[in-house]
Amino acid sequence: MLIYNFGSPIDGPTWKEFFSGLLDINKIYPLHNIIYFPFLFFFRSKILYRIYVWLGHFLPALLMDAANICMGRSPRMWKLIIKRDKDFEMYESLIIKDWNYSTDNVQAMWDHLSEKDQQLFNFNMMGFDWTKYFMDYHNGIRHYLLNEDDSTLEISRIKYKR
Q1: What is the DSSP string of 92-120?
Q2: CA distance linking residue 14 with residue 99, whole number of Å
Q3: pLDDT digits (tens, 9 = 90+) for 43-98
Q4: Full-prediction pTM beyond 0.85?
Q5: Cβ neighbours of residue 3 under 8 Å, at least 6 residues apart?
Q6: Are 80 and 100 in contact (CB under 8 A)?
C-alpha cells in the first residue's frame, strides 16, 4: 500500500523560523492586549528552559497576583501561566524535534499529473509563499481568535514601540 504524506517541503520553515517569522510580523501588526513584550528563546537544555520559565513566567505571575490581591482584585495570572505551561508540555515533543516526512509518493503523483491537472489540483508546496502565510496566520489570530480589528493597530503600534 502506498502512503502519501503531505507536508511542507525540505525548504519549508523550521519551528525556529516559524516563531521568528510570527514575532517579526507582530512588529507590523502588534496585538492590542498583550501584557508584556513578546520575545522568544530557544534552549537546548531542559534545565535552562525550566529556570527561564520560573524566572520569566511563574515569578512575574506570582508578583502580579500578589499586587492584584493587595489592590483588592482577584488573582488570575498564576492560573493563566499554569495553563500555558501545560499547553507547552503537551506540544513539547513536536516542538523540540524537527520532523521530516518522506513525500516521495506525493512528488511522484505530482510528476505524473498533466499540466492542466496540476493547475486544477495545485498541491505542490515548492512555490509556497511562507511569508504571506505567516502574515495571514497572524492576522487570522488577531481577527478571529482575539477579536481585534484594524482600528486598534495604531494604538497597538505605539504601545509596542514603548
Answers
A1: HHHHHS------HHHHHHHHHS-HHHHHH
A2: 9
A3: 778 888 889 889 988 999 999 999 999 999 999 999 999 998 898 888 877 777 76
A4: no
A5: 105
A6: no
